[in-house]
Structures are given as structure tokens and as C-alpha cells.
Amino acid sequence: MGYRSLDPSSAIEYVKSNNLFPQEAKLTAGEVGDGNLNLVFQIRDEQNGKSVIIKQALPYVRCVGESWPLDLNRTILEANAFEIQNTLAPGLVPKLYHKDEELALVVMEDLSHLGVMRPGTLQMRKYPKFADHISTFMANTLFYTSDLYMDPFEKKALVKKFINPELCKITEDLICSDPYYDCERNIINPALRPYLEQVFWKKPALRLEATKYKYHFLTEAQSLVHGDLHTGSVFADEEQTKVFDPEFAYVGPAAFDPGLLIGNILINYISWSGKDRPVEAIQDYRQYLIDTINDLYTLFHQKFVANWDADATEVMATVSGYQEFYMRKMFVDTLAFAAMVMIRRVHGLAHNIDVDEIEDLERRRDVQIAILEMAEEIMMSRESFATIYDVTAFVKQRIF
Asked: What is the pLDDT of residue 69?
């Protein structure tokens, strides 16, 4: 039959025809996705409450339209990433039930009872186990897919399996290039444009540093990265954490995942300056965010090193001083990627609701400038920070 995009009715027919539900099941379906690329349906059995998620790739960028075509294979690549992540970080990603290459879709565990983290953070919700869980996810998936552990032939086969040029190109453009000049794809708050034209786009030193990290992204096949790790790609509650949406997965710089995550948390941290909440509530939540950043990176570092000490197989891993060099580079690169995603989410193609929910455009501009200035300072001073605690102390000194 070939590829066709599903709708709620055909999604129900699909799960029944593939024996994911009994033929007599009374099913309902609704589109629940709000992403930029895909169709997402929730299928529910009204009799027993069982539900699954169908995620189907569209042959174009959904938030742009058919003028930006995309390869449909990305959903199968995502399924392949889930399989590896389920092995390396069991319990921290959704269960995968079915994949269909022809229709470019996967059927997976429905985790909507947990809720996506980003909307929770907009309501100042706290996730006490998130730092522990996400640090395990990153330490395991990034170490055990690196040359430190993998057989060199298997590692190169992994690189080949996760060649993901179209979605990597989105990152290369939207994070590494577009925000540093007046690109037509950028979505710009009109109140912010004068600052961009008169100040931000006249920073050649900052653009040079971003360009260096674009080169890292293009060339550094270090680990299988999630590729889009932020609070919008995590389901969580007070007890559980589940990472989803790894369609940007490829073998790239390991620091990209912790960098994107920390950068997105810092955006939320700064965004409260433009919102009408009691000062005490803002300070309390900001301290929670600071603690979360400190904990998740410290635990990630500790767990990655523990994996190294227990399971490294590559001879270079035993060379005196190499572990310290590797982890120092990981930290500095994490800060660079954090800064770049902060910049990209201000005036690139896709923003964070953390800031865009500020309706007054001048108040939003002030928050956006604060994010850009913080990101620039982190990027340009990244080598001067010894630990993540130095970074968060710097952030807190500037804004609290």
C-alpha cells in the first residue's frame, strides 16, 4: 500500500489489524502531539483503560509545511534508539511495542499519566528523583555507546546505523548557525529585534565560538546521543522519569545531551523574571532549579566515571590523566552547548513556552535579553569554571 498518514479513525484500524488490541475492543483515538515534526495519537480501550501511543513521521517539518521535506526513516531510527536505551537504561524510556517501516511509525507505551515535565515546570512543580534518574540515563547511554567501552568494529557499525543527516541538519542550522545572523527562519519578537540588530548580531567572537562547536557537532562521533534532550522530551512525576522522543539520535559529542538539558533548565530559571508570581515563590523554585542542575551534572559525572572504572575496554582509558582530560572536556563542552541552546530558543525557529507565554512583548524582550547575556557569559567564560557549582553560583549571582 505504501506510506499514508493516519488519522484517528485509521489509527484505530491499524492497531486492531496488527493485533495490538482485540477486534472487539471499543477504542477511541485522539491526536495528542504538539511537536514540530510528527503525528501522535493516543489509542484507548474504553472497557479496560489500556492505551498506547502511535507516533508517525510526516514527510516534512510539520511546523513549517511541505516546503521543508524530511526523510520518513527517522521514526525507525527513533525505534532503534529506544531499543538501545531500554537495554542501557531500563525503566527510563517507554516500552516499544511495534514498528512499521512502510508507514514510518512506532507504537509505544502510553506515559501520559505522568505528564511532560515542561508544563509542570511552568507551574513550579518539583521532581525530586529527576536528577538521579536522568543522570543514570545519560551516564549509561553515553558511556556504553562510546569507544571507551565498545568494540571498535561495533562502534563504527553503530555510527553507520544512526546516520541521521536531515535531523542533524536541523540542529546544525537552528542551534549552531541561524541565531547568529538575521536568518529568515528566525522567529523574532519585534521588541527584541533592535537589540539583535544593534548588539547581538555584532558579536563576532561569540559567533566564532558557536562555529567551533558546530564543527564538534559535525565531526565528533563520540557517543549515541539522544539529540534533543530537554524537559519537553521527559515524562515525569515525583517517582518516575521516562525519556522519549529520540528521533534526533545520532553518534555525536556526548556533552550535547547534558548541555541541551541544562540550557533548557536555565531558560526556565531566567523566565520567572517576566512573570507575576510572589518573589518568595520564584526564589524557592529557582533554588530548586539550581539544585537540580548541580545534582544532575554531579551525579552524571560520578556515574560516568564509575562506568569507566568498572567497564572501560579501550587501552587509552587506562592512560594516566586521560580520564581527567576527557571529563574536563565533557564539562566545558556541556557549558558551550547549554549556552547555544539558550540562544537558539530565544529567537530561532522553535522557542520555549517558558518565555513565549509572557504576553507583554517588552517584558518578554527583557527576559530574552537576560537569557542571551547569560548564555554569552557562560559560553565565553566556560573555561574559567571548575565545577558545575561554580556555574550555578555565577547564575545565581546574576539573577535570583
From this structure: 86
